[in-house]
Amino acid sequence: MATDATGESAGTADAYAELVERFERINGVQGAAGVLGWDQQVMMPEGGTPARSKQLSVLSSLSHEMLTDDETADLLDAAAEADLDDEQAAQLREMRREFERADAVPTALVEEISETSTEALGAWEQARAEDDFEQFAPYLEKLVDLKRQYAEHIDPDRDAYEVLFEDYEPCLPLEQAEEILETLKETLVPMIDEIRASDADVTTDAFAGEFPEDGQEELSRDVLTTLGYDWERGRLDPSTHPFTSGNVYDCRVTTRYDETDPLGGLMATVHEFGHAFYNLGLPEDHFGTPLGESRDLSVHESQSRLWENHVGRSPAFWELVTPKFAEYFDSDASAREAFESANQVYEDNLIRVEADELTYHLHIVIRFEIERALISGDLDVEDVPTVWNDKYEQYLGIRPETDTEGCLQDIHWSHGNFGYFPTYSLGSVMASQLFNAAEDDIGNIYGKVREGDFEDLQTWLREEIHQHGARYETNELVREATGEDFTADYFVDYVRSKYGDLYDLEESV
Amino acid sequence: MATDATGESAGTADAYAELVERFERINGVQGAAGVLGWDQQVMMPEGGTPARSKQLSVLSSLSHEMLTDDETADLLDAAAEADLDDEQAAQLREMRREFERADAVPTALVEEISETSTEALGAWEQARAEDDFEQFAPYLEKLVDLKRQYAEHIDPDRDAYEVLFEDYEPCLPLEQAEEILETLKETLVPMIDEIRASDADVTTDAFAGEFPEDGQEELSRDVLTTLGYDWERGRLDPSTHPFTSGNVYDCRVTTRYDETDPLGGLMATVHEFGHAFYNLGLPEDHFGTPLGESRDLSVHESQSRLWENHVGRSPAFWELVTPKFAEYFDSDASAREAFESANQVYEDNLIRVEADELTYHLHIVIRFEIERALISGDLDVEDVPTVWNDKYEQYLGIRPETDTEGCLQDIHWSHGNFGYFPTYSLGSVMASQLFNAAEDDIGNIYGKVREGDFEDLQTWLREEIHQHGARYETNELVREATGEDFTADYFVDYVRSKYGDLYDLEESV
């Protein structure tokens, strides 16, 4: 009996070890695909597409096969019987989630979605160029239908949008996300109204003029070094759309340079730094396993937004950085002018990626409401442009005159990514709560920012967030880090205080 | 009966189609590994090694598993029964060769060689830095032993070195390679003696001075464009060791810049152009299959050497390029002076990679003789330094004073690459024969080179070599392209004529 029991226990422990090895192999393939993706966007000559597409599709199908193999299922069942510690249990939880998600959806459907997305991307590009939603509509309709099928394979008993949302944010209930977005809407719509009515004298043109690309690159490198980017494990390159790619050993950022918009590029650099700094702080011990991965998109975005908004858009940061502007460019803006320009609330911006920190979230709320209604069937694809424009008028007081500036502006739906947008706002909200807790623990963060001393903030984020990898689910991670449940309260306080000061708003707003 | 026969034929045709698909998948994985390798040498931050090693090792074991799978063997057997045309038969021949090679050697031995190589590389680096062969000797001994075992698994009845040689040059008999190397030795040893005794006034210092890196990069880009490099399917970057990586859609070159040696960098660029131009001319229709690959190392090296030596070291090339030197640098060398400097035979160079076009081959002959004797057991590892130095004295009239400048100079043996070196010289010899045939077909190539007109030569190489992929084996490819068997005659004529003129040699040499 004793022998049998020992034998069985050893067997289940072996199953756990085998699983870890199997997921490390899968991660090796996915990591390779990540490098290929980075290369494709940053280095690859344009002719390279046919070979690259083939390579990426082979790697994707190999990792899918390895993940959904019957043996994975057997090992997961066997390991569940093993005597696991908390960390191992968390590891197994993440493994099972990945497996179940991948296993539930037939390969044929995954391929159909992928092929339809490729066609939809082409149609979207053309529709956008020609300001003609009609051209994109049939593809959007097909993607909505395919994604409903996709959700049904995963769980036929739940709201399809809820299931889709989990692809990007698996450990935060949609209901909670919805409440937070509702709070943002209720807070920001009247606040933006009042800002528009304000006659406060906010500088808007500190970054007017020509800012040569060379200087912008030097500035980005300088700021990355100042924030604490580890160049031995990273690099900076330009790309059309800034992004971050990599792991704890090698995590690279990209940014963009527009000679008339040095702020856009610099804020992109700071934003991507936040993403990279997270990945570079993940637990090396668990490299290559689900436990060694970052938590999902809201948490990742909380890191980029914390650095972009709470650091990069603060008066203290501009006291630190304005002298660098004078060094790299012919610029005589004061720190206060730069701060104000970096935080101005735009009157008539229709484009999400060019939005300020406040209006940004109404761009998200609009997309969230529309895609939920699309997936539930409450909204027909043909009505999207009208509903889009009505909502912009209602929430932001501006109405797009073209679909190119309206519902065709973002690439996401052409990828079939329904449920992705909310994570952007959730990240901002979480960033506020985390920054507040860090300030409670550290004290006088902005005094240190002014001196270019980021060490305490770096350490706090590493210890409270990064080093845990995927050990905790989102709500637990926030609770462990801040001592409180995930809440929008700190974000509301933050924007009321910051924009109240900037625009001399009534205290009631 | 008729139905059965048809059914069987369809089955075997299916087997062929399945094989092609399987090899395309394998190629996708290997292509991905190629991109990762390029990135590692050109872009990766130094800290990235642990993740990259893991990714590469997973891809390597996956492609090995896919290749040696029982199903591959079954499909190969089934496809052999199919009614294949010549091209398909060549495809199957290449597939079978890859499979048999990979299948013959136990995975454990492959892994042991790989691990020993990693240790040996570290030991070699340290031994070389400290000029202490003793530190490297035990690793070299182990690698010799492991590689003997490796060869025995593949074919216990044949000479082990012959088997190892086939890893780099599978379709050229070693005996033939040996004869060619013997001819080189017999030709070059007395010729170099006479050059040393010559009192011809050859310019040696046309490239003395400082040549800033920026200008060298511009020059390399300019020359690549002039030679016909397709920038939409390639890129140029600096790396420690110049190399070429990629496929018909995306083939990239690297070069090196040393401010006191602009010739070294430019010749590396031209050499790598030759490799890249080959890959970029491979048949797109067969992309991803063995038939769509380049022929092996001798043929590949013939392409780089043809461009480097027959084009890049010709008087015509220097008439074309010397004005560019004046444009990018403060240089007033004449075309003739530049040509002479680029072709001078060094008196006392001990280092293979810095050798001129003549002494180069004696560096190769020495390595070939030593590694053959090591593998056969006729030479003990401990005696390598002495034998090395004796041979340098005997063939080149110079004796290394240190092992760092002697038998520790090259990295190849620390990788366990025995049998690789000969392909360098075979490539040069083949280049001469191909260039001679191209001249016969085209006429006045150097007149066109002088004008920067490379079109006819490009077309000839594409049609005679590149477009065939791996369709023909090496000897057949040479015969198809030149109408003659592979021979060293043209190389001997070429060096006698060129260096005879340059150094006023007796006609008998």
From TrEMBL, chains A, B:
| EC numbers, comma separated | 3.4.17.19
Please share the entry's free-text remark on the cofactor: Binds 1 zinc ion per subunit.
UniProt: Zn(2+) binding residues? 271, 275, 301
UniProt cross-references to SUPFAM superfamilies, sorted A to Z: Metalloproteases ('zincins'), catalytic domain
Query: What would be an example GO MF term here?
Result: metal ion binding
State the similarity comment.
Belongs to the peptidase M32 family.
Instruction: Return the protein name.
Output: Metal-dependent carboxypeptidase
Among CDD domains, the record links this protein to: M32_Taq
**UniProt source species:** Halobaculum marinum
| Lineage of the species this protein comes from | Archaea, Methanobacteriati, Methanobacteriota, Stenosarchaea group, Halobacteria
